[in-house]
Amino acid sequence: xxxxxxxxxxxxxxxxxxxxxxxxxxxxxxxxxxxxxxxxxxxxxxxxxxxxxxxxxxxxxxxxxxxxxxxxxxxxxxxxxxxxxxxxxxxxxxxxxxxxxxxxxxxxxxxxxxxxxxxxxxxxxxxxxxxxxxxxxxxxxxxxxxxxxxxxxxxxxxxxxxxxxxxxxxxxxxxxxxxxxxxxxxxxxxxxxxxxxxxxxxxxxxxxxxxxxxxxxxxxxxxxxxxxxxxxxxxxxxxxxxxxxxxxxxxxxxxxxxxxxxxxxxxxxxxxxxxxxxxxxxxxxxxxxxxxxxxxxxxxxxxxxxxxxxxxxxxxxxxxxxxxxxxxxxxxxxxxxxxx
Amino acid sequence: xxxxxxxxxxxxxxxxxxxxxxxxxxxxxxxxxxxxxxxxxxxxxxxxxxxxxxxxxxxxxxxxxxxxxxxxxxxxxxxxxxxxxxxxxxxxxxxxxxxxxxxxxxxxxxxxxxxxxxxxxxxxxxxxxxxxxxxxxxxxxxxxxxxxxxxxxxxxxxxxxxxxxxxxxxxxxxxxxxxxxxxxxxxxxxxxxxxxxxxxxxxxxxxxxxxxxxxxxxxxxxxxxxxxxxxxxxxxxxxxxxxxxxxxxxxxxxxxxxxxxxxxxxxxxxxxxxxxxxxxxxxxxxxxxxxxxxxxxxxxxxxxxxxxxxxxxxxxxxxxxxxxxxxxxxxxxxxxxxxx
DNA sequence: CTGAAAGCGCTAACAC
DNA sequence: GTGTTAGCGCTTTCAG
Lengths: 340, 340
Fold this sequence. Notes:
- The structure is a homodimer of 340-residue chains.
- Chain A contains eleven helices and twelve strands.
- With 340 residues, the first copy, chain A, is of the alpha/beta class.
- In chain A, helix 7 runs parallel beside helix 8 (193-207).
C-alpha cells in the first residue's frame, strides 16, 4: 500500500540498493544517478519506513525520559529542555512517569517498553543505594539524572546541590543577614538533595563564622508549596527570629513567602528569601524570587550527548562519567537590598 | 545476539509458529504444548521484539501528544493525564512541543516522525480555521484537543469553555457580587478560548440582568501569571470599582491576586476571585483559588479512546465525533463568603 | 492443532 | 559506482 524503495528503484531504473544509498547520503554516487533517484522519490512521494529501518539497524530514534511527575514544575521544565536537546539531535522522546514510586521506577527499567527506545534518561527519586545493582541488568544505554545515589555502571549528570545551597546561603550572608532559616530539610538524610543542600547551607554558615541553629531549620515532607507554607507556619509559631530564608526549592519558597506576607513580614526588608531550581514562576511572583539556577539546560544537553555516545558505540566499554552542571545565583527582588 | 522465537522453538521442540501462537494468546493450543513453550520462554528469558512486531503489524504501541509547551502548567497536567490514560491502554506517549508556533504545529503533523506512532493527539494553538485543510492530508489517526477551530475530518475532544465561564461568573453573582471584572480577554477574538469564555461571562451577566461594562474587562497578551498581574494593575489604576474577578485561567488569577493583595484588597472579602483550569497550584495558594475544573481527566480518557478506535479500525470511515467534557465549579477560599 | 514458508521495508555484505 | 542477496524478528496465509 505505501511506497517502498522497490517502487522508487523501478521508476528510476536502478536497484534498490542505489535508492538506499541516495536516501542515506552515501557519498559515492554519480550525481546523475542521484538526481534520477531523487526525482523518482519526489514523484512518488516516497518516505522511508522508519520502523523497517529500526528493525534492521536496531535503532529507533527514540529515547525515553523517566521522571517522577510532570505536575512538578521542575520536572516539567526538565522535560522541556530534554526534549529540546533531543530534538536538536533528531531524537523523539517518550516520557514515562514513575510517580516517585520505587516499584514503578524499577518496573519501568525492566519492562518490555524499553525495547522501543535506543536509550534512557533516568531520574529516580525513590531508589536508594541498595538498588544500584538493578542498573547492572539494564543493557539499554542509560544516563542517570539527579542525585548520585548510585555508584553504578552508568553515566551520571547532575547539579551541584551542595555548592548551590552554599552559594545561596552566602548570598544572604553578604546581604548582612545572620539569622538564616531553612525550609526543606529531611532529618537524617545525607545523600539526597535535601541532605546535600543542607550541607551546603552549613558550610556557608561555617565560612562566615555563624553558628548553626537547629531551631531555624524547617523540615518538610514533600517539596511542594504546601510543605513550604506549613514549615514556615511552624517556624513563625516557634517564635524564632530570622532575617533570611533559604528554601531548598522554589515551590517551598513560594509557599513560605505567602505565609510570611500574611504574617506581615516584608520581603526582602524583614526577611530576604532565596529558593532553588529557577522555575519559570519565580520570574512572575511578587516579589520575584531569587534562586539558584541549577543548569537544567546544561544537564539536558550533556545527558543527551552522553546517551548518544553510548548509543553510537554499542559494544564499547565507556568508563562511567559524571558531569556536574554549572550553577548560578539568580538575584531577584526577594533578596535585593532596599534602596535606602 | 538477542533471543528470538527460533531459539525458543528449538528448545521447546516446536515450530516458530507455535511459539508465536503462545506469545499472542492464540486460543487453540494444546495446554501441554503451551506449557512446554512457556517454560522454554522462561528458561531463555525470551522477550518478543516489539520493533519486528511493529514492522509486521504496522503498529508501534506509541502515540504522540503534540502540545504547545510543557512549561505551561495546564499542558503539563494535560500531558500527565494523557499519559495515565494511554498507559492504562498499554500505550507509550511521545510528547512533541510546538511552542504555539504555527509553522512548527504544521511541521510536526507532516514530518517523518509520525511514522513511529499509531496515532496523534493534537493540541494546536496557533492554527486557524484556514489551516483546516491541512488535516485532510494526514492519514495517521488523529484526535484534536482544545478549541474547535477546525471543522475538519477528525474527532475532537474539548472543554465547555463558554458554559464553564458562565458558571464561574454565575457563582460570583450568587455570592452577591455585581461588579465583576475579567482578566484574560483578547479583543475581537470569537472562536478561541478567550472569545468563548468571554461569551460565557456575558451570558451570565445577562442572565442576572447586570449590564456589561467594558471598563471591567482586562485584556492580556499571554495567559501567564505576569499577564494577569499586569492587567490587574491597569484595572486598579483605572479606578474602576469591582467586587468580583473572573480570570480566564488560573495562572492569570494568581498574578492578579498578588497585585490585589499588594494593593491591600482582601480576598474574598473585597474581591471574590475565580480562575479556570483547576491546576494543582490552586490548592496550595493563600487563599486557595476557586476555579473551573474543565474535566482534564475526561478529556484525556475520551481522546485516547477515540484514537484507539480509529487505530483499531484502519480502513473504517468513522464519522467525526465531538466530545465536550463535563466541567465543575470548584469552590475554594477565594470565593467563600466570610463567616459573618 | 501445528509446521513450512513467504514476506513487512530496509540495510549491509559482497560481488561485479 | 551499482546490483544481488541475505537477513533483522515477527506474523500470517496455507498446508497438513
